[in-house]
Write a structure and sequence with these properties.
With 64 residues, this protein is of the alpha+beta class. It has one domain. The chain is built from 3 helices and 2 strands. Strands 1-2 form a two-stranded antiparallel ribbon. The N and C termini lie far apart (29 Å).
Length: 64
């Protein structure tokens, strides 16, 4: 993981996975997809590291 890596929002992730944002949020919120939770007062915002998403996707590749 690169500490200077840009954190991406769930719209970026939803576009990448070709899922609705609500489904993407569900997968992130329940811990299926690795994420970072940012707290700003009462507001909670999830962000993802592209390198962690790439690693997560590689682990789920189907190999024949």
């Amino acid at each position: 993981m690169n500490s200077a890596e840009k954190l991406e929002d769930l719209k970026w992730l939803a576009d990448l996975l070709k899922l609705r944002k609500s489904k993407t949020h569900q997968l992130v919120a329940n811990g299926t997809i690795p994420s970072v939770l940012l707290l700003d007062g009462r507001r909670r915002t999830f962000r993802v590291r592209p390198s962690e998403v790439e690693k997560w996707l590689r682990q789920r590749e189907v190999r024949e």
